[in-house]
Specification:
seven-stranded mixed beta sheet, 8 helices, binds S-adenosylmethionine, 255 residues, 7 strands, alpha/beta
Length: 255
């Protein structure tokens, strides 16, 4: 379980990812009620019922399964079992993955790195500078004293070889093209100490994601675990553990 966060976190993912299905549910339920009072014929009522059932169940799945705008838990307790060391977050964004690690591993320190470019704004929209938004969340989580923020392209990292005890990357490497993925994984292997852990979390276009989002959530997620396993092995990693949670594939790697 992650540690307690007392401040107000704002990860900034679009509202519809968290509440879009609830809005559809409310609309379908309202029209269903109207149809009932006006005695509409059977088929429109059945269709509205199916829509309400689908959107309501997806909302609950999202709320309790992914909760992309809420605090994340480590998908595996095997990551950084020692509990200490310097961790690198590749593509930290507004801090969800960094906070996941720092609250679960209270002795660890972390470098939250991101390109803070177009991709950041595409995900999180405009606002204060990306670094300010990230820092605000780190402070709200009470972990800012153990974190530093570095602007860096994960395809060419500004760190010495073997600088980190562990690496985490959530929903970020899968934004890159094939060449970028190879570069980022090679860079991760270079800056990680031998024997260090790399927790790689990717968007998976699994049955759950298809049920909830249909074609909206493609996101490189058509690549399955075999594809990613081949890429990480080419980069020199060994796969220690693999698992899934709704819309997510994770690989725990060791260099
Ligand atoms: C979907 S967000 C994930 C943020 C965070 N890891 C999380 O779990 O919420 C993807 C992040 O990857 C970053 N990113 C994309 N390409 C990058 C690159 N080449 N180098 C570093 N960061 C990159 C984007 O700026 C964005 O913040």
């Amino acid at each position: 379980m992650p540690g307690t966060v007392t401040g107000q976190l704002d990860f900034g993912y679009p509202w519809w990812l968290s509440y879009g299905h609830l809005a559809v549910f409310a609309l379908a339920a309202a029209v269903l009620l109207l149809g009932y009072t006006r005695k509409w014929s059977k088929w429109p009522m059945v269709l509205l019922g199916v829509l309400a059932l689908w959107s309501g169940s997806v909302f609950l799945l999202i709320h309790f399964g992914v909760d992309i705008n809420g605090q994340a838990s480590l998908p595996t307790q095997s990551f950084l079992r020692s509990g200490t060391g310097q961790v690198l977050d590749l593509g930290a964004g507004t801090g969800r993955s960094s906070i996941m690690v720092l609250t679960s591993r209270p002795q660890a320190t972390l470098v939250a790195s991101d390109l803070f470019g177009d991709s950041f704004e595409r995900h999180f929209g405009p606002g204060d500078t990306p670094q300010q938004r990230l820092l605000r969340n780190l402070k709200a989580a009470g972990v800012d004293q153990r974190a530093s923020i570095v602007t860096a392209d994960m395809r060419k990292l500004p760190f010495e070889a073997g600088s980190f005890d562990a690496i985490v990357s959530c929903y970020a490497v899968d934004h890159l093209n094939r060449e970028g993925i190879n570069q980022a994984l090679a860079e991760a292997a270079r800056v990680l100490k031998p024997g260090g852990d790399f927790l790689l979390m990717l968007v998976a276009n699994d049955r759950w994601a298809k049920f909830a989002f249909g074609p909206v959530l493609s996101h490189g997620g058509t690549r399955g675990s075999a594809w990613w396993t081949a890429r990480v092995q080419e980069a020199g990693f060994q796969v220690l553990e693999e698992g899934t949670s709704p819309a997510t594939l994770y690989l725990l790697l060791r260099r």
